[in-house]
Specification:
This protein has about 150 residues and is of the alpha/beta class. The protein has four helices and eight strands. Strands 1, 2, 5, 6, 7 and 8 form a six-stranded mixed beta sheet that branches. Strands 3-4 form a two-stranded antiparallel ribbon. The longest helix has 15 residues. The N and C termini lie close together (about 10 Å).
Length: about 150
């Protein structure tokens, strides 16, 4: 299956998870590509976010959306991108978010649910989702667990 991993990453943490996922999917026999969202404007204040070239989602049979959590919510750049999604026409979709604070109530669950909802509204068949907490001694196992769950959903 050809899978696009569409990711917004400010610090590189979310991108690292996307690269791990790409490697796992490729090892499982899929064709996977990471496409990084880079806004042209609006990233700093989260308003009037504009993109240049957006990924062509038609080339993929499956999609993964990844984003950091910012201010207890889905990052404004990813939220703006998700609002511009074309119809997904039944494509398999998975989602993940990364965050710094260790508690679920600090935005991780809400952010991943927002990604799922935006994909479902556009006709995506959402399966696996995960939250990666970027602090603590279990970071590597948390990344590996989420990558494993998502990769098995394709």
């Amino acid at each position: 299956m050809k899978i696009g991993i569409i990711v917004y990453s400010q610090t590189g943490h979310t991108l690292l998870v996307a690269e791990n996922l790409k490697n796992k999917l490729t090892a499982a026999g899929h064709s996977a590509a990471v496409e990084r969202l880079v806004p042209l404007s609006g990233e700093k204040d989260g308003k009037n976010i504009q993109f240049g070239n957006l990924p062509d989602l038609n080339q993929y049979e499956g999609l993964v959306f990844g984003s950091p959590v910012q201010a207890f919510s889905l990052a404004p750049v990813m939220a703006a991108y998700m609002k511009q999604l074309p119809p997904l026409n039944g494509k398999k979709v998975a989602c993940f978010v990364t965050k710094g604070l260790p508690f679920r109530w600090t935005g991780g669950s809400g952010a991943v649910n927002r990604l799922k909802k935006e994909a479902e509204v556009r006709g995506g068949k959402v399966g696996a989702a995960g939250v990666i907490v970027w602090r603590g001694t279990s970071l590597d196992s948390n990344i590996a667990e989420v990558v494993d769950v998502i990769s098995k959903s394709f």
